[in-house]
Write a structure and sequence with these properties.
Distance between the termini: 90 Å
CATH topology of the largest domain: Calcium-transporting ATPase, transmembrane domain
Largest sheet: 11 strands, mixed
Shape: elongated
CATH superfamily of the largest domain: Calcium-transporting ATPase, transmembrane domain
Keywords: ATP-binding, Cell membrane, Ion transport, Magnesium, Membrane, Nucleotide-binding, Phosphoprotein, Translocase, Transmembrane, Transmembrane helix, Transport
Radius of gyration: 35 Å
Membrane topology: Multi-pass membrane protein
Structural class: alpha+beta
Oligomer: single chain
Pfam family, one: Cation_ATPase_C
Number of strands: 28
InterPro entries: ATPase_P-typ_cation-transptr_C, ATPase_P-typ_cation-transptr_N, ATPase_P-typ_cyto_dom_N, ATPase_P-typ_P_site, ATPase_P-typ_TM_dom_sf, ATPase_P-typ_transduc_dom_A_sf, ATPase_P-type_domA, Cation_transp_ATPase_P-type
Number of domains: 4
Family: Belongs to the cation transport ATPase (P-type) (TC 3.A.3) family. Type IIA subfamily.
Bound molecules: adenosine-5'-triphosphate
Number of helices: 32
Length: 892
């Protein structure tokens, strides 16, 4: 028999599990050994050897190796071996860079690995989805992604979207009845749920019957190898730039070689020099360094609690001009405590903090006995009954399982001695219509001991007021007249203006014959009883974060399902709402078109009582106005807006799988301040990439020009091939990596957001590359000529001086690259990686010049002390000539 044909108990027997206590750890281990991990096979990645060999597939490197081989055959063994060694070391470096980049991307995947709730050893625990085994009992609710194929044993209004499997985008209603009959397709298996599909509504429990490749998804896994490219726009642009640079470098090299040959240089020597120059001048390492810089930045972001799910988001973060953020839990702590209760124009205060169920009820500053106040008792009882949360005592502490709003209601009831478990002895919950943020309420149908049934509803007060017909006033049921309505509205406003989140409680008795099938039937003609007001204090760090964002040219917009006055009060506390700022409500939003919203959206700072579908409209309007929008969300319904936003952000703690998968950034701590840190990091990563692009390209320009000018002037080669390769490996590589780890400039979060279309060379970078590169070439050549003309017989000595000047000019210039403005803006000792890279580059250069066994290999001659003055003086010019002129301009 197939799983879907069996009854639930038959499934349990067949797969040997226990629906009360789940599997034991031992059974899990055994089954894992037998069935393997619950993973789909991934496409094979290139092996380490292949990755290493890939480093040498570059055309110019191959030409260089061929040329070296020829020179080896011609008897130039030392040169040949040295060049091969350098190319080899370069390859190893490239290999490790790529490996590192790959590893950290891999680690990222692990971090955002999906989890599920399974019954193990009698307890519901969170486990990694890949650890599921056949026989596991798993529960899931709206927003979850299904971790394995399961036969359902419980289904509460469960609906699942299975388009990944069936292509059908409409959710399927699920039940637990066995299905008989031949030829039932996957789409008809309504008593099963499948790996990779999404729960869009309700909740359920299932028994795992298939894992890994042994699932419906596994059978089509080959089709699923997601080909989503993780390249960022900058990487793509750099790739194009790289191609242009290769052509330019090659042309210049040909020019150098051509002129050199015309000037009477030996063809073979010129050829080797030309190829070395081409290898050095082509920034082949650039893409790898960019990836490393990006992934190291991403790792720093993880330490600051944000997980980047899509690499391009790192760049887009730096362009963000608006952050649209949820209020509850993101700007506030989501630790709710009921402090006021209102009914019939009476207000009771409740003391106590957090989820500790100890506190007093006061009326007009006097403690009262709740048992003697019938309405109060009723409000508290209903608040606890219409509730899916639980408060558990653990190690003298009280822990909430569920939604904080509901937790607050439970705790308030417990303070009056009304425990949910005890209440269940008098009331049986026979039906539940769970909360959703579109209805903004939740209802249950309860049956008391006498068999009498009631609908109990709790939810947003303005919504409940709209569906109530009467009101309980001083314990008497009266018609809900205009007058009463005004009184309730006054009470709502009074609670909300104290920044309290308000929940209304209402009920309705049912006759014995009345049938209720839908939430719509339950939630009408209610009897309004009263309000519970709860505080949800702002997170302390958010106010400062909002200010920093404002300084950085980023607007913060609060989006909340909460009451407009509560929202306004909290927005004021956090300085989000300026004096002339607008607040817009969900129903006003509904009546506006996207174009109409566009007109006013720049003035709106708070959107209240919104439904998730409004968020999409807000994103669109802002984008149409040219904004780069970051948008947060946690629920299933938030996914479209998260996807549409330039930076979709989801919540690590409260977020559903659906929201997480739609997002490009996950906030591990659900905290608004984390968005600010991520934006700062995003800006920094981009600036650091600019820094080393600037450094590398200026260096390359210098290297090419010194050779070109020398050939034009009919001079001998100022640098020998091995020296050029050495500069490329040591002087270019190490400091560039260190620039990728540079600290942000002080004014990073004082600048306006970067324009997303901005080119790599904007903001004067192109000019800096060319001018500094030109000067580096000139001073190297000048140092060479001075020493060469002093004694034309000692060419190798002049070449060594040129080599040292080129190295030193680059190593000084690297500090200039740290600032957009001037070298004097920054403390050079801030970045110890850079100091380390520069010092080791200098030491390695000294070794090459002064260590006798290396001298024949690198064609070096020990430099005399007085010539160091020349070298240092010359090499300081490229950086300080222009930095100096900038400085005088600034002080003038
Ligand atoms: P944000 O969008 O900032 O997270 P929010 O949490 O207030 O704000 P929703 O969760 O959509 O947004 O809640 C909207 C309203 O629904 C709340 O203001 C509250 O009045 C009501 N509400 C919230 N949670 C529940 C619940 N569990 N049961 C009944 N009503 C609720």
């Amino acid at each position: 028999m197939k799983w879907h044909e069996m009854r639930a108990d038959e499934v349990t027997n067949a797969i040997n599990t226990d629906v009360e206590s789940g599997l034991t750890s031992k059974e899990v281990k055994q089954r894992e050994q037998k069935f393997g991990l619950n993973e789909l096979k991934e496409a094979e990645r290139p092996s380490a050897i292949l990755l290493f060999l890939n480093q040498f597939k570059d055309f110019m490197v191959l030409v260089l190796l061929a040329a070296t081989l020829i020179s080896g055959l011609l008897g130039e063994y030392i040169d040949a071996i040295a060049i091969i060694a350098i190319v080899f070391v370069n390859g190893i470096l490239g290999f490790f860079q790529e490996r590192k980049a790959e590893k950290s991307l891999e680690a990222l995947k692990e971090l955002s690995a999906p989890q599920v709730v399974a019954l193990r050893n009698g307890e519901w625990v969170r486990v990694l989805s890949k650890e599921l085994v056949p026989g596991d009992v798993v529960k899931f609710t709206s927003g979850d992604r299904i971790g394995a194929d399961m036969r359902l044993i419980e289904s509460k209004s469960l609906e699942v979207e299975e388009s990944a499997l069936t292509g059908e985008s409409l959710p399927v209603q699920k039940s637990i009845q066995p299905i008989v009959g031949k030829d039932v397709g996957i789409g008809d298996l309504t008593n099963m749920v499948f790996m990779g599909t999404l729960v869009t509504r309700g909740s359920g429990i299932g028994i795992v019957v298939g894992t890994g490749m042994n699932t419906a998804m596994g059978q089509i896994a080959d089709l699923l190898q997601n080909a989503e490219t993780m390249e960022t726009p900058l990487q793509r642009r750099l790739e194009q730039l790289g191609k242009i640079l290769i052509v330019v470098a090659l042309l210049l090299t040909v020019l150098v070689v051509g002129i050199g040959v015309l000037q009477g240089h030996d063809i073979y020597n010129m050829f080797l020099a030309g190829v070395s120059l081409a290898v050095a001048a082509i920034p082949e390492g650039l893409p790898a360094i960019v990836t490393v810089a990006l992934s190291l930045g991403v790792q720093r972001m993880i330490k600051q609690n944000s997980i980047v799910r899509k690499l391009p988001a790192v760049e887009t973060l730096g362009c963000a001009s608006v952050i649209c953020s949820d209020k509850t839990g993101t700007m506030t702590q989501n630790k709710m405590t009921v402090t006021q209760i209102w009914s019939s124009d009476k207000v009771w205060n409740v003391s106590g903090t957090g989820y500790h169920p100890h506190g007093e009820f006061m009326y007009r500053d006097k403690e009262i006995d709740v048992a003697k106040t019938k309405t109060l008792q009723q409000i508290l009882t209903f608040g606890a009954l219409c509730n899916s949360a639980a408060i558990m005592e653990k190690d003298n502490d009280y822990i909430l399982d569920g939604d904080p709003t509901e937790g607050a209601l439970l705790v308030a009831a417990m303070k009056a001695g009304l425990k949910k478990e005890n209440l269940y002895r008098s009331f049986e919950v026979v039906e539940e219509f769970p909360f959703d943020s579109v209805r903004k309420m939740m209802s249950v149908i309860v049956k008391d001991k006498n068999g009498k049934r009631f609908v109990v509803t709790k939810g947003a007060p303005d919504v409940l007021l709209g569906i109530s017909k009467s009101i309980l006033w001083n314990e008497r049921q009266e018609g809900l007249t205009r007058e009463y309505e005004e009184k309730v509205k006054g009470a709502i406003e009074s609670l909300a203006s104290q920044a309290l989140r308000t929940i209304a409680i209402a009920f309705k008795p049912l006759s014995s014959t009345e049938r209720i099938e839908t939430s719509y039937e339950a939630e009408k003609d209610l009897v309004f009883i009263g309000l519970q007001g709860m505080i949800d204090p702002p997170r302390p760090e958010v106010k400062q974060a909002v200010k920093e964002c404002r300084d950085a040219g980023i607007k913060t917009v609060m989006i909340t399902g909460d009451h407009v006055i509560t929202a306004k009060a909290i927005a004021k506390q956090l300085n989000i709402l300026p004096t002339n700022g607008k607040v817009l409500e969900g129903r006003e939003l509904s009546s506006l078109s996207v174009e109409e919203l566009e007109e006013i959206v720049d003035d709106v700072y708070v959107f209240a009582r919104v439904s998730p579908e409004h968020k999409l409209k807000i994103v669109k309007a802002l984008q149409n106005k040219g904004h780069i929008v970051a948008m947060t969300g946690d629920g299933v319904n938030d996914a479209p807006a998260i996807k549409a936003a330039d930076i979709g952000i989801s919540m690590g703690i409260t977020g559903t799988d659906v929201a997480k998968e739609a997002s490009s950034l996950v906030l591990v701590d659900d905290n608004f301040a984390t968005i600010k840190s991520a934006i700062k990091e995003g800006r920094n990563i981009y600036e650091n990439i600019r820094k080393f692009i600037r450094y590398l390209l200026a260096s390359n320009v210098g290297e090419i020009l010194v050779m070109l000018f020398a050939m034009i002037l009919g001079l001998p080669l100022p640098l020998v091939p091995i020296q050029i390769l050495w500069v490329n490996l040591v002087t270019d590589g190490l400091p560039a990596m260190a620039l990728g780890l540079d600290q942000p400039e002080g004014d990073l979060m004082k600048r306006k957001p970067r324009h997303p279309k901005e080119g790599v060379f904007s903001r004067g970078l192109g000019w800096k590359v060319v001018s500094r590169g030109f000067l580096i070439g000139i001073v190297t050549l000048a140092a060479f000529m001075i020493v060469y003309y002093r004694n034309p017989n000692e060419l190798a000595y002049a070449q060594t001086v040129a080599f040292a000047t080129l190295v030193m000019a680059q190593l000084i210039h690297v500090f200039d690259c740290r600032s957009e403005k001037s070298i004097f803006e920054r403390n050079p000792f801030e970045n110890m990686y850079l100091i380390g890279a520069v010092v080791s580059s200098i030491l390695l250069m000294l070794v090459v010049i002064y260590y006798p066994p290396l001298q024949p290999i690198f064609h070096t001659i020990p430099i005399l002390l007085r010539d160091w003055l020349l070298i240092l003086g010359m090499s300081a010019i490229p950086t300080f000539l222009l930095a100096g002129s900038l400085l005088t301009r600034k002080t003038a």
